[in-house]
Amino acid sequence: MDPQLQAFREAGERAVRFQLQYQQPDGSFIWDPSIRDAYHKQPYSWGISGYLPEAQRLLSWIAANTLQADGSLRDYNGDVYKQSWFFQGCHRLGRFDLSYPVMGWLLAQQKSCGGFPHFAADDRLRALATAWTGISALYFGRLDVARRAADWCMTLLNQPDPTRFYFQTTPAGELLTTALDPSAQFVDLAGVEQPYWEIALPWMLMLRLWEATGEEHWLTRAEEFFVEHYLACGADRFACTGSGKGSLAAALHYRHTGDKRARDGAIEFGEYLLATERPEGGWRGPTEPDTLLIYIDHAAEYNVWLQEVAAILASVG
Predict the structure, then answer these.
(1) Mean pLDDT confidence for 149-171
(2) Residue 193: what are its φ and ψ, rounded to 5°?
(3) N or C: which end of the chain has fewer CB within 10 A?
(4) How far apart (Å, rounded) are the C-alpha atoms in residues 31 and 28?
(5) How many CB atoms are closer than 10 A to CB 34?
(6) Strand 125-126 versus strand 164-166 pairing type
């Protein structure tokens, strides 16, 4: 493997070893009694790096202790995004005793317009939850759910303000702008350290749908999200704590299109992580709280992006 890509994998490996220090003797990942919802990324992160016994022990603890009758996870308060993370990890590991009920709960959260709320009780839908759950639906073979989620995401391509990317809608699918609701959220395209994932995940969903169907229009929509919106973001779009999802989308985009701007973006994020990883294996952004939870959460997620990006780019050559 290319030494640069191997360095990405090794950085992710350090991040997993850092996380594993906090797994409890009973298999759980609650090292602090006040933090009850910090294990949603670990099955994916540990599994992709080959730490299968540790991941399976955690999943067995979850099955026995926090899985609820309706398929939700106790203490997650209806967080659709986090439970989509959890679904992908346990489904990849073949823990259908967990993934099937969790997906059942997730499917019940999709609105008629195709979008998903971040939290089940929210009065607005969001790109973060919609696109990530759409990708989860593809793992589950629910192409219909993924298509509807993608249709919702495509409504975000019609932005009324060229300096902003709004990423929420009403439950009926109407784009929320500050003209309609002063609390409407958006990516400031002239800013830095923005929530770039709100563009990156819809972009990734389009690419995954193209892989699943071979239908050319999904690749066309991916191009729109990448070229017209993601590349319009600030200079740190591939070099900040919010850039990870964009790095995987970029690696996928490069695999399918050969666009070297996408490859360069994926590499830029990997290099950013190499430069900012703490000696123990965690990360924290410059404006984030200096708490163990931040380091652990980033360690779990960034290992996924490092391993996925390294594998995809190595496969392309």
Answers:
(1) 98
(2) 50, 50
(3) C
(4) 8
(5) 6
(6) unpaired
